[in-house]
Amino acid sequence: MKLQSDPYSGANTITGYGDGYVEINRTPYAHAVLLSSDGAINEWPVQSFDTLEADHFAQMVVLKPELILLGTGRKQRFPKPELLKALISAKIGFEIMDSQAACRTYNILVGEGRQVLLALIVEPI
């Protein structure tokens, strides 16, 4: 699926998404990413939803976003509550959705000028 970005914005945007990849600023990535609206594109060491650990969420807190969108792959799945403790303790809002919906929502929020972090699991084909 191709997504349209705002060509006048300096923010990172999702320009495409499909099985086994996410395209950010027209560059494809075949691994999980932590994507800040105005920061770096970081490889996120998550192989699949089932490998999520508390440390993966602690990594997000360090970036101090206003809101976190967690894209859980092809299907929406909810992590165990104990994994989310770092986000709750830091009072960072989060939304959990399938990765395709997370990509679309991320672009909308970036277009509104929000400080959003996308934590996206990219499942292999």
Instruction: Round the mean pLDDT to the nearest integer and report it.
Output: 92
Q: Please give the oligomerization state of what you see.
A: single chain
- The total beta strand count reads 8
Low-pLDDT segments, ≥5 res: none
Number of helical stretches of at least 4 residues: 3
Shape: globular
Order of helices and strands: EEEEEHEHEHE
Strand content: 25-35%
> What would you call the structural class?
alpha/beta
Provide the gyration radius in Å: 13 Å
Distance between the termini: 15 Å
* Strand line-up across the major sheet: 5-4-8-6-7
Biggest sheet character = 5 strands, mixed
- Residues in helices, as a percent range: 10-25%
Quick overview of this protein structure:
This protein is α/β, with parallel strands linked by helices and 125 residues long. It has helices spanning 54-62, 85-89, 99-111; strands at 14-18, 21-24, 27-29, 33-36, 41-43, 67-71, 93-97, 116-120. Strand 1 and strand 2 form a beta hairpin.
How do the strands and helices of this protein lay out in sequence?
Layout (H helix, E strand, L loop, with lengths): L13 E5 L2 E4 L2 E3 L3 E4 L4 E3 L10 H9 L4 E5 L13 H5 L3 E5 L1 H13 L4 E5 L5
Parallel strand pairs: 6-7, 6-8
Antiparallel strand pairs: 1-2, 2-3, 4-5, 4-8
Main features:
125 residues; alpha/beta; five-stranded mixed sheet; three-stranded antiparallel sheet; 8 strands
What does this structure look like?
- By secondary structure, this protein is α/β, with parallel strands linked by helices.
- It is built from three helices and eight strands.
- It has helices at 54-62, 85-89, 99-111, and strands at residues 14-18, 21-24, 27-29, 33-36, 41-43, 67-71, 93-97, 116-120.
- The chain has a five-stranded mixed beta sheet with strand order 5-4-8-6-7, covered by helices on one side. It has a three-stranded antiparallel beta sheet with strand order 1-2-3, with helices on one face.
- It is globular, with a radius of gyration of 13 Å.
- It starts with 13 loop residues before the first strand and ends in a 5-residue tail after the last strand.
